[in-house]
Known about the structure:
Elements: H1 2-15, H2 18-50, H3 56-95, H4 99-148
Helix pairs in contact: 2-3, 2-4, 3-4
Amino acid sequence: MSDLKNKQIIDNLKNSSWEELYVLTEHWTSDLEFYRDDLRFLHHLTEKYFMWISKSENLEVVRELKNGLFNLKVTVNDLLDKVREHRIQVGQMVENLNKVDASIIQSHHEHLEEGIREFVKSFRANRKEVFKITEYIIDSERLEQIMDS
Length: 149
């Protein structure tokens, strides 16, 4: 099923104009900047609320969570750089079609699209995990404080 979807995306890409691809790269940039900002929020959330953790097992979970957020931050920044560079290349194709470079740029576009798709999948899973763990830790830490009172 995934191969069929990828084939459809590639076919659509080959039928797209350079102008359409350029607009798509603008959307990618906007989306990736949103994800980058959301990662900042998630990092802030972990810093603000997890500093009160007293259980060592919760501290380890948070360390792993923060490592995941850091890796996503590195990935989103890398993707943003690549999309910006790619956008320039696509813009040059809009201005002056060079058939020699066209297939290379289309291939690069496909790889970027796949990279973004994988990033979004990882981001969503990580974000869900942040909220799930946050809820668990707040509840478990609060319960222990109540029991100690």
